[in-house]
Hints:
There is one protein chain. The protein is mostly helical. It has one domain (8-219): Rhopdopsin 7-helix transmembrane proteins (Up-down Bundle). 85% of the residues lie in helices and 0% in strands. Helix 4 runs antiparallel to helix 5 (111-128) and helix 4 packs parallel to helix 6.
Amino acid sequence: MVLLNGPYWFMSLDSLFNLVYVLITLLIGGLSYKAYKLTEERRYKYFAVAFGLMSIAFFVYFAATVLLTTHKIALALELLSGFDYAFLIYVLFTMMAYALLFITTLKIEEPKIRTLILTLMFTLTVVSYQYYLKFHIALFAVLFLLAYNFYENYLEKKSFNSKLVFVSFFLLACAQLFYLGEIYYELSYVVAVVMQLVGFLVLFYMLLRVLNHGREKRKA
C-alpha cells in the first residue's frame, strides 16, 4: 500500500502530521499572498499558489490515510487499495507546486523552458505513480536544486531571512533522504515526517518576519 508507510504504531500520528501539513502549507500560502500585497513582489504571489497546491495535496493524502487506517468506508478502501488514486493526486499536485517554486526561484521567463519544466514534472508524476521511492528521489532532486539556489542567495545577501529560506529547503530536501531510508529502517520515516514539518515551520517563521518588517516600514 503506497499511502501507508512507517512503523505501525505511528500510523495514527502520521495522519495527525498530515493534517498539520495541510494547515501549515495553507498558512504559508496565505502569508505569501499577504507578503505579495505588502511588498508587490511577484515571487510571493507564486509562492502562495504553490503552497496552495501543496495544501490540497496534503489534504488528499490526509483524507486517504484516515480512510485506510479507520476502515470507515469499505468501498473507498477497496478503490484506494487497488489503484492508489489518492497517491497519484498527491504526487501530481506536489510536483506542480515544486515546479512553480522552481520556475519562480530561478526566475525562468522563457515560455518554452517553463513548458519543458512543467512537462518534465508531469512525466515524473506519471513515472512516480505507485512508486514511492521514485517519487522521493525526484522530489529530492528538485529540492536539492532549490536549496542550493537559496544557499547561493544567502551567501550573496547575508540576511537572516535568506538564511531561514535556505535552512527551510535544506531540511525539506534532507527529509526526502530519510523517506528513502525507510526501506532500511522504519524509524527513518518518523524522522522524515518531523524534519519536513520543521522545514515548513522555518519558512512560516520567515514569512512572519517579512510581514512584520513590511508593516513597520509602512508605519515609518
